[in-house]
Amino acid sequence: xxxxxSPLTTKKLKKKKQSSALEWVYPPNNxxxxxxxxxxxxxxxxxxxxxxxxxxxxxxxxxxxxxxxxFAQVIKLPNVQNxxxxxxxxxxxKKTISRNISIELNKQRKKQTKLSSSNKFTIQNPKSKMxxxxxxxxxxxxxxxxxxxxxxxxxxxxxxxxxxxKYNLQIAKLLYKKLKSHRSKLKIKVFLTRTKDRFVSLKQRxxxxxxxxxxxxxxIHHNALPDNxxxxxxxxxxxxxxxxxxxxxxxTFLNSICKKSGLRHYGLFKRDFALTRPTFCAAILVECGFLxxxxxxxxxxxxxxxxxxxxxxxxAIYLVIDExxxxxx
Length: 329
Fold this sequence. Notes:
It is elongated, with a radius of gyration of 21 Å. The strands form 3 sheets. It has a 6-stranded mixed beta sheet with strand order 10-9-11-14-12-13. A 5-stranded mixed beta sheet has the order 2-8-7-4-5, with no helix packed on it. A 3-stranded antiparallel beta sheet has the order 1-3-6, with no helix packed on it. It has helices at 10-15, 126-134, 164-181, 183-186, 202-211, 247-261, 296-300, 303-320, and strands spanning 22-26, 31-33, 37-44, 49-53, 61-63, 70-76, 81-90, 93-103, 141-147, 188-192, 216-223, 237-241, 265-270, 282-290. Residues 2-20, 108-129 and 323-329 have low confidence and may be disordered. The protein starts with 9 loop residues before the first helix and ends in a 9-residue tail after the last helix. The protein contains 8 helices and 14 strands. By secondary structure, the chain is of the alpha/beta class. 26% of the residues lie in helices and 28% in strands. It has 2 domains: 22-103, Immunoglobulin-like; 126-326, Zn-dependent exopeptidases (Aminopeptidase, 3-Layer(aba) Sandwich).
């Protein structure tokens, strides 16, 4: 997700053994939150019993481990400073991981920027502007695909500790390859903002799209949540846009991806993100499901599901450029 801070570093992930019976992915040690609760998630041997405890809990709270070994659960933070323990019992042996989690009091949370007709980024004649963006007269339609995060910026992580940036790039490359195979039918040019695991700033991504004279900018991400929400209650595809004239296009993408992938509609959201804010093209950000969800994470990282998500995006592109006789079946 664009504005989600990664709790782990690549070095730490590499040091972890893949065969480890217990992985506590989030939150990291010495985590600071603005809420009196947070959620924990990670991976455990599914045959184990798992508990979360602190000095303030009268009895340890049992943590549900899903059959695939993933777990996610909301926990209460009774004090400003909390020493939280994750306790695993497997074959009579006890393994404990301890982390300090503190509540930051009197810290104002960032408020979502409200967009209005007076906003300097508002497009004045939405319909005619959108027509010109999606139906270029003298040149092929240019599509820029942006795999979110990369390099030192990992995004969120799966319950097994794999960074979001890896999966963003996998889907983006698959989409790029698919669109290249359709370029003669669609009359398009396609570009990627990054082709490997490297850091690219938000400004560099936007400038790249502008240099390529992009008509359509699609930023690929996987979703996460603020600390105060329950990860088990949030699933599905989310599509984000900034300008009202892009909303119908964003809705087309949402419906098409959900239909082809079988994933739920998480929703259509108006946000002031760097990758949805450009005025020189139609720009959307696609959250390809929740990487932090114990079950959905396993589904969305599979090659088969990634192909279905890409199929939905390609189908949406056919729809928005009004090439109905060429749409994929």
